[in-house]
Write a structure and sequence with these properties.
Blueprint lengths: L9 E7 L6 E13 L6 E8 L2 H16 L11 H10 L6 H18 L9 H13 L15 H20 L26 H10 L6 H8 L4 H6 L5 E2 L4 E3 L3 E5 L2 E5 L9 E3 L2 H21 L20 H15 L6 H14 L4 H8 L4 H8 L4 H22 L1
Antiparallel strand pairs: 1-2, 2-3, 4-5, 5-8, 6-7
Helix pairs in contact: 2-3, 3-4, 3-5, 4-5, 7-9, 11-12, 11-13, 12-13
């Protein structure tokens, strides 16, 4: 049987082995692979293989990928370079959102930043996920991380998937290995809210508190960033309305201000009489403090500010909230849970879901019910009592 002739794209050559220095036979494949997506120029793929069979198989694979427009030329772009380019290209993100992306990508960049991104495998990402869950990964500053929650780890996987999708779209990697990584099972999380009785106790305790109006705003459904960023220019005490137009949030260890979280978050709310009275008192207190300081301090533009007229960072408000709740003798829940409490109490009082969503700044009422409306023990007991009365009445009728 005669030997098959080599196709023109494959040549048998003699080269020096890099390890031994001896002359060996290699089969070199040279294929026109079309236009390079990164440079816009025509390109060729040149690969060498130890056997003719490997070379022929590679020729078929490369030709098929080229025909489908899926061929990816070899690249030295590293994981670090790709992550940096991806972040730089997210022009539409707020500073806070970009900071979160950087945070989620940090473990990948720290461990595999030096690695060419074409060499990043599913096993690499799986190993990183396992270590984040177990704890003990090291930050760029040498600090050992505590175990991450399933929710946080899943955000890392999703962010890595976004970066690789961008790299695949640019023709830098042939496949997105993060798509194959399983998400971590997220355990059910119970979100605490205050009962109506606890709200009344807290309101009584903060009646004369300097930041009492901040906690009243939070219990009225405002986000922490909305409370911190609310300005007196957005409050009309005469007509009794409050406009959410500013958000003050933490981003990368710094406090930044931007527009509300979404279009639905930009809203104008009618102020209840109680809240009008509370805000009038707070404004008068700030006016007295400003007068006492004279030209010192400022700008006194914010509804919630310190004794010299400067706005608070959101994290500081959370610390003050914790100490206030503790002093009131009420069990601790997070400041954001005050917002949950507002939605839950509205729901238990029969307020329609669409109205609750509009009040707290959600576009989707079903999302509001999923995230913020929680049945409370007292409400469940009342429901049980109602069922008991109904069943008892029916038993009496039967007798």
């Amino acid at each position: 049987m005669s030997r098959r002739q080599l196709p023109p794209q494959i040549k048998k050559i003699m080269v020096a082995d890099r390890k031994t220095g001896k002359t060996v036979v290699r089969y070199q494949v040279t294929v026109d692979t079309g236009i390079n997506q990164q440079t816009g120029r025509r390109q060729q793929a040149r690969r060498r293989y130890a056997t003719e069979r490997e070379a022929r198989a590679a020729l078929v694979e490369i030709a098929d990928a080229t025909a489908k427009g899926q061929f990816v030329s070899r690249s030295k772009v590293t994981v670090e370079a790709m992550c940096a380019a991806y972040l730089a290209g997210r022009h539409n993100l707020r500073a806070s959102s970009k900071s979160k992306l950087e945070y989620d990508l940090a473990p990948l960049r720290e461990r595999f930043g030096h690695l060419p991104i074409q060499r990043l495998t599913k096993a690499h990402v799986d190993g990183l996920v396992a270590d984040l869950i177990a704890g003990g990964t090291t930050t760029a500053k040498g600090r050992r991380r505590k175990p991450w929650s399933a929710h946080s780890v899943n955000k890392v996987i999703a962010t890595v998937e976004q970066v690789l999708a961008d790299a695949k779209g640019q023709g830098i990697v042939p496949r997105n290995v993060a798509e194959l990584v399983n998400r971590v099972a997220v355990p059910h999380e119970h979100v605490d809210t205050f009962t109506e009785a606890e709200v009344l106790v807290l309101l009584g305790a903060i009646a004369d508190h300097r930041l009492g109006h901040a906690w009243e705003l939070a219990l009225s459904g405002l986000r922490r960033g909305e409370v911190a960023g609310l300005r007196w220019a957005d409050v009309d005490l005469e007509s009794g309305s409050l406009a959410i137009t500013n958000n003050r949030v933490s981003a990368g260890g710094q406090t930044v201000e931007n527009d509300p979280k979404s279009a639905a978050s930009r809203r104008t709310l009618p102020l209840p009489e109680r809240l009008i009275a509370v805000l009038r008192t707070a404004k008068a207190r700030q006016a007295a403090e400003r007068l006492a300081l004279g030209a010192i301090g400022g700008p006194w533009d914010y509804v919630v500010c310190n004794e010299v007229g400067q706005p608070y960072s959101p994290d500081v408000l959370s610390r003050y909230w914790s100490s206030t709740v503790r002093a009131a003798g009420v069990r601790h829940i997070k400041l954001h849970a005050a917002r949950h409490t507002c939605a839950t109490l509205m729901d238990l009082d029969g307020v329609p879901a669409a109205v609750i969503a509009a009040w707290i700044g959600h576009k989707d009422a079903s999302l509001t019910m999923k995230l913020y409306a929680h049945s409370q023990d007292d409400a469940l007991k009342a429901a049980g009592a109602t069922l008991n009365r109904v069943v008892t009445l029916r038993d009496t009728d039967v007798i």
